[in-house]
Amino acid sequence: MALILNIDTATETASIALAEDGKTLFMVSNDVPKEHAVWLHTAVDRLLSETGSRMRDLSAVAVTSGPGSYTGLRVGMATAKGFCYALNIPLITETTLKVMAFAAHEQHTATGLLCPMIDARRMEVFTAVYRPDMTEWLPATALVIDEHSFEDILGQQRMSFFGSGSDKCKPLIRSPHAHFENVIYHSGYLGILSFLRYLQKEFTGLAYSEPVYTKEFYTHTKK
After folding, report:
1. Contact 184, 205 (CB under 8 A)
2. What is the CATH number of the domain that holds 161?
3. pLDDT > 60? residue 38
C-alpha cells in the first residue's frame, strides 16, 4: 500500500489530496492565490484528520513542479521537500501541464493531441502538447499566441485546448481541427500519476529538486 500526499499550488486554485494506491481518499482546495502559503499547512492537518492518517503513515509526497505561479511553485516545492526530509520518504515531482493533460484525457474520450494552457499574462501562455499516451509532442514552453500558433500541427490533426490560458486563444486559433474543452483539473489527478511514478521508483532527489519556471522571473525595483 502506498499512501501519498499530493500537493498542487501551481495555479490560481490550489489543492491537496491524500491518495492510497492512486485512489483519492480526501481532497481540499483553496481559490485565493495569495493565501496558498497560509492555507497549505492547515489544509494538510485537515486532510490527515479527515482520513484518520498520520504524517508518519506517508509513503511519499508528490508536488506539481511547474510551470505556474512563481510564488505558488516555491510554496509547494518547499513544503513537499520539508516533509520528505523530516520523514525520510521519497519526493515525487510531476509537471503541471502533464497533470492537466492527464485530466483532459480522463474526462474527454476524443482522440487527438492535448494542449494544456496556463495563463502567463497578456497573450503569453505556458503550454505543451501531449499525445493521448501522455508522451510529449512539444515540451513545456512559454509561448506568445497569435493567429499562426500551432498551424503546422492543426493542418494535420485534431488538437484539444484547455486550461486558464485557452480562453484568450480561442478568437485567434480558428482551425476546424482546434477544439476548446472545459477540463476540471485538481490534485486528485496528480495522485494517480504520482502512484505510477512510485511504483516505478521514479523519485526526485531532494538536494537538486527545484520548480520548473519555464521562463525567467522578473521583478520591478523600487526607485
Report:
1. no
2. 3.30.420.40
3. yes
